[in-house]
Amino acid sequence: MLIGRHPHLSRFAWESAQDLQRSRAALDRFGLAGFADRDVRTLSGGERRRVALAALLVQDAPLCLLDEPSSHLDVAQQAATLDVFVAQAGEHGRALVMVLHDLHLATRYATDAILLGRGRGEAGRAADLLTATHLSALFARGLVELRGGTARAFVPD
Length: 157
Hints:
The protein has 157 residues and is of the alpha+beta class. It has helices spanning 17-29, 45-57, 75-92, 103-109, 126-129, 132-139; strands at residues 63-67, 95-99, 112-117, 120-125, 143-148, 151-156. A hairpin with a 2-residue loop joins β3 (112-117) and β4 (120-125).
């Protein structure tokens, strides 16, 4: 977990008490308080994934690049994880770029989108691109949009 603090250390320096505190706080944000002393080999796949994401969070990078950050996580942890990164980006004015294949998460979290497929790409506001028309063309499969409250989902027609 402390590996996330290495970019902030000078050569041959050890982590400080502040680095340790920040690392524990990152674990706590992912619901892993008390996991700092556990051997990673004793963790489930989802717990390992959340530890890796906490290590990324504690780096305090101005730009986070996330490739399928919700993989290996259950539905509740998917939302909780993306909530953490979106909040962190907003609180500290940082950029967040995610690759998501889960359309439910993309419609919930994306402000802008790039649709890539079939040898072409299209970029714009997520609200304009994440539509049944655009996604049907992208996947070459008819999709319909379902709405419930503020949630949107796309299912095969």
